[in-house]
Every structure is written in C-alpha cells, then in structure tokens.
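Quick sanity check, Uroporphyrinogen-III C-methyltransferase:
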Amino acid sequence: MAEHPAYPVGLRLTGRRVVVLGGGQVAQRRLPALIAAGADIHLVSPEATPSVEAMAEAGEITWHRRPYTEGDLATAWYALIATSDTEANTRASAEAEAHRVWCVRSDDADAATAWTPATGTSEGVTVAVLTTEARGRDPRHTAAIRDAVVEGLRDGTLVAPHHRTRTPGVALVGGGPGDPDLITVRGRRLLAEADVVIADRLGPRDLLAELPPHVEVIDAAKIPYGRFMAQEAINNALVEHAKQGRSVVRLKGGDPYVFGRGMEELHALAEAGIPCTVVPGISSSISVPGAAGIPVTHRGVAHEFTVVSGHVAPDDERSLVDWPSLAKLTGTLVVLMGVDKIGRIAETLVANGKSPDTPVALVQEGTTAAQRRVDATLATVAETAAAQGVKPPAVIVIGEVVAVGPRGTA
Ligand SMILES: C[S@@+](CC[C@H](N)C(=O)[O-])C[C@H]1O[C@@H](n2cnc3c(N)ncnc32)[C@H](O)[C@@H]1O
C-alpha cells in the first residue's frame, strides 16, 4: 500500500457520519478539526479524557460508552481508529476496508487507508503537509514544515504575491507598546503587505527596518501640515495614498482606540469613502506596567483599574477627568501622558483624600531595551521623577499593586 504516494484530498464532512474509536489523546487532538468540519461524529469508547468528555457534554459529538463492535463502521464516511487495543483496531480496520470507509489508524500507519496531514490555517487557507510514503513518515518534520509555512504566511515573511488578496484601503494597526514581538499576527501580516506605512513615534519602530525597500515609510510627526492641524494632515495623507490604490497601514502605538485618535482617522476615511480595517493592539496601559512587574489588578488588593490621560493638568478647564472622584477609588490608577503634570496630579489626588503614602511607579519606554522603572509615593513622585529625569513616554501606576510583585520582577 505504501509503494505509491498518498493522494491528497480535502474531505467535506458537513453532516456526514464520522466514527472515532477510542477516547484518548489521539481522539482529543483530532476531534476539534472534525467538529470544525461539521461532521456528525460518533465516538465509540468506554472511556474518554476530560476534554473529550466535555465535547460530548457540549453536544459536539455523540459518545457511545462501550467498546467497538462489528457494524460500528458500516455507515461511516470516514473513521479514526485509535483505541489502545491493537486487536480491536485490526478488526475495525478490516471492517472499514470491507465497507470502503477511508480510515486512519493511530497504531499502524501502514495498515491505514488514510493519513492525517499536519495542518494549520492562515487567512482562509488550510496548509496540509503529508509525508509521501508510510516508511519515511516523520511526523515532527511534517509538523515543522507546516509551522514554517503557516508562521511565514501569518507574519508576512513568506509572501504569496500572485494569489494574496491585498487589503484595499487603510488598516489602522495597533502596534503594541514598542517591543516588535508584541504586535498582533494580523497587524504584522498587514504591515508585510503594505505599500505605504504611516507610523507614529511610539510603537514597534524596529519592524519598519524589516520592510522591503519599495515600501514608503512616512513618519507621522514629519508630515508637513501648513495651515492644517497635524491630525488633519495625517488624515489627508491616509486618504490621498489610499486613493492612489495603495495599501496603507497606519501603524500606531498600543491600541488605536486608547488615546490614539483612531476613531478620528476612521471617520475621515469613511467620509472619503475609503475602506478601513482596524486591528487592535496591546495597549501600553496594561502591558507596560506588566513588563515592569506590576499587575494592574491583584486579588485582594485592586478590583478595578482606571486608565486616564494626564496630558492636561487637573485644574485645566479642558480636562475631562474627574480627579476628586478618582481619589476616592480604591483600585489602580493608570495615567498615560502624565509625566509633565504628575506633580499637579499627585497634589490633587492627595487633596481629595488619597493617602500621600500611596505607592507610585513610573515606567519609561516599557517593553523596549531602554525600559526603566522609578518608584515613589504620591508625596514624593514629583520630586523623584524630576530628580531621576523621567521622560515621556511613561506609564504612571498609582496604587497598592505597585508593591505586590516579587523583588526583581521588573
Ligand atoms: C498618545 S498615548 C497612546 C497610547 C496607545 N494608544 C496605547 O494604547 O498604549 C501615548 C502615551 O502612551 C504611553 N506609552 C505608550 N507606549 C509606551 C511605552 N512603551 N512605555 C511607556 N509608556 C508608553 C505613554 O504614557 C505615552 O505618553
């Protein structure tokens, strides 16, 4: 049977009876894909792992709690034979053969009439890798090839130029806090497909160096804005490049909708009739404290965290933040864009009832090689930040969570 290579095919199993014999690890690994394929799955096994049992409880499979008996495979389209009893497996595969049911055997690939490829998916494409001959089967090698292809397609290092459907218009991509590994898989793929990238100063700037030379990289801070406001100039640049039929990525720090003006850009694009997709990002408000060893919540310490902008002082009439109310909260306060105003912020919180001993941490350039953390209290933070030369970008964390990490976590 193994003289010739296997013939690859995609089975369309929706509503079709698939019989799985054995409820152990093999079934547990294979069942999710069969469920995803919409198969009418019948598991025959006296026992099952807790995960397989959960699939039965959820109604995703029908579980017959008994050993295999002759006739189980008679009406199946496809079978997976994976019991721990070799003799039963042999009888079952003979029955499959007699009824012309394609069957996979976990214990004897040579005796099977079908092999399961190593599979993975990326953007609507299933990658399936199959060894050509049973004798040369090396599951780790096939899995490694699968991983290389799927990973490459996902992160854009493997480009399929003739067939890839490029995203038209603009993608507002949240790039995460700065470490290039902390962008999402989707964001990275869109970046790899872009013709033009308009990037902020914050975010994963190292990724820009990896872009091929034909990609135009525009620094958002350097877009000339003449009589326009800077944001309007950025909106215009997005619209103009997209109108020329180019794939545009607007690469933003953190998440596009957390103090990121993402919705303003989306509105401008909608008004110009440009399709826009938004890719969430890991916000610095959670990830930067985390990178410095500070959880924004901790059981028994903080049951809430509030993220606020500190770009205007509490007594500034433009401020929309209710600082006196924030002073009364027991949870964590995370302040973005607050380095310049931290003195006034700390004073206001203390004046409204927050203890001057409340721990404060300033985390500058979190998740990058230059990350540093400076600790203080509300009473000392203004002086400490100035003395230590803390500069933006920094996330300021105020609350008892600052002190819960083991020493040296940051
Ligand atoms: C205009 S806001 C954008 C926030 C972003 N959209 C996000 O979700 O993280 C910029 C502020 O985010 C914070 N920030 C962003 N990246 C940071 C980093 N790597 N380290 C420290 N603070 C950061 C700083 O407070 C900075 O002033």
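Posting the structure with no commentary besides this: The chain is about 30% helix and 20% strand.
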